[in-house]
Amino acid sequence: MPPDTYVDTSEWTLDYPPLFAWFEYLLSQIGRYFDKEMLAVQNLNYGSTATIIFQRLTVIFTDILFMYAARECCRCIPEKKDGKELFKRPAFVLAVLLLWNFGLLIVDHIHFQYNGFLFGLLLLSVARLFQNRNLESALLFTILLNFKHIFLYVAPAYGIYLLRSYCFTSSKPDGSLKWSTFSFLRLASLGLIVCSVFAVSFGPFIAMGQLPQVLSRLFPFKRGLCHAYWAPNFWALYNVIDKALSVIGLKCGLLNIESIPKASMTGGLVQEFQHTVLPSVSPLITLICTFISIMPAVCCLWLKHRGPYGFLHCLILCALGSFLFGWHVHEKAILIAILPLSLLAVKGKKEAGIFLVLSTTGHLSLFPLLFTAQELPIKILLMLLFTVYSFSALRDLFREDRLLSWLEVLYLCGLIPLGIFCELFYPLTPWKERFPFLPLLLTSVYCALGVMQSWLKLYILLLNESATVKPKKDQ
């Protein structure tokens, strides 16, 4: 692998951890037989037919890992012998929700990313925890972290659960911690696995004195609070409130137009900005907000042993907390919460209702990734197919129970006129040239409400759940 992997040689210089660099190096050894020109760093936006075929084939091939992980997750779902048809069983519904996930499909196979096998590693590590194969789960997640550091979002859930449920070999009958059962040997085993993977990944760059350069690529804080395509999170709402207050201030003569920054948070560019009325947000502030948002979930996981489902609940809350309050969050990061939530959706009606709201709003927020006219019917059709199946399949699973409140139904119905306006009507208006960022702003803000509501409902469910905690046997 070239020693200048993380040197700024182009706008597409690698900003993933070192194991992904090795993965790209492996692909390049195969890609040279398709088209050598695709490997030239100077060939920006190069797209020969051979290159496209190679990229598509490699994504399809690596998705085999995701399929295997989905199968392992389905095996973790307890099946009741109630005579239900195959298509109405929880494991089958889960398989479709994972393999047919709209967001992952468009991100991997249309927008083009290698997210399928990365999410495969995540789901496989979750499945291994359900199967009580803790060390294997730790290995898989550590490898995943060194492929893509965005999964740091859920690292607290893994760290606390493995420490709580593996390093402490049993709990008290009420589920609380039994300190006398701590195993230093198990902690050492976990530490050895984690440190070994990081040594293999970062070791060569440490030896070459390039660690600072690697870290600067992995954590580019100068890119600004929000991604160019706003993620539907708390900061999208914060930016819009600041913009509204600045407009009101100008109308009322409370603000001087000279004092307003020329660069606007609603400009759709990747750079640092200053808010006009509300306090500007620094990376440290987002870190503190993220920490506060995940702490209750992490504390619940530590204080009461609730098994793998408790871990999964915490993982999703960590993913959502980081998504809502993190710095420069990419909109596709919502999949880190949606995909694991699929496992909870087939478990209970409350979780199923949360999944329907989160998946619908989260997936719609990905629409701006596909912005060409020929992609419009494809994304609408795929979204409709997945959404209709999700609603019908989960309704059949919990036939006697209502999954959504009338207010949630009303909110989701509002996505229809929003999509029609942003995708069909607005591009035909003269406003498109003057306010090109408006559809994205409306989509992000409206979807942010659904994401935040799902996060709050998950927390309420966690804090109010009266789970029966069984004493854990020595392992």
How many distinct helices?
Answer: 19
Intertermini distance? 42 Å
Number of strands: 0
The computed structural class is mainly alpha
Mean pLDDT over the residues: 88
Outline the biggest β-sheet. none
The helical percent reads 55-70%
Q: Indicate the multimeric state.
A: single chain
Give structural notes.
The structure is a single chain. By secondary structure, the protein is mainly alpha-helical. The chain is 61% helix and 0% strand. It has 19 helices and no strands. The protein has helices at 18-31, 49-75, 90-99, 102-109, 116-130, 134-145, 155-167, 184-207, 211-218, 234-251, 283-303, 307-325, 335-345, 349-364, 376-397, 406-413, 415-425, 431-434, 438-464. Helix 10 packs across helix 19 and helix 12 (307-325) runs antiparallel to helix 13. The chain is globular, with a radius of gyration of 23 Å. Residues 471-475 have low confidence and may be disordered.
Protein topology:
Blueprint: H1 18-31, H2 49-75, H3 90-99, H4 102-109, H5 116-130, H6 134-145, H7 155-167, H8 184-207, H9 211-218, H10 234-251, H11 283-303, H12 307-325, H13 335-345, H14 349-364, H15 376-397, H16 406-413, H17 415-425, H18 431-434, H19 438-464
Salient structural properties:
475 residues; mainly alpha
Quick summary:
With 475 residues, the protein is mainly α. The chain has helices at residues 18-31, 49-75, 90-99, 102-109, 116-130, 134-145, 155-167, 184-207, 211-218, 234-251, 283-303, 307-325, 335-345, 349-364, 376-397, 406-413, 415-425, 431-434, 438-464.
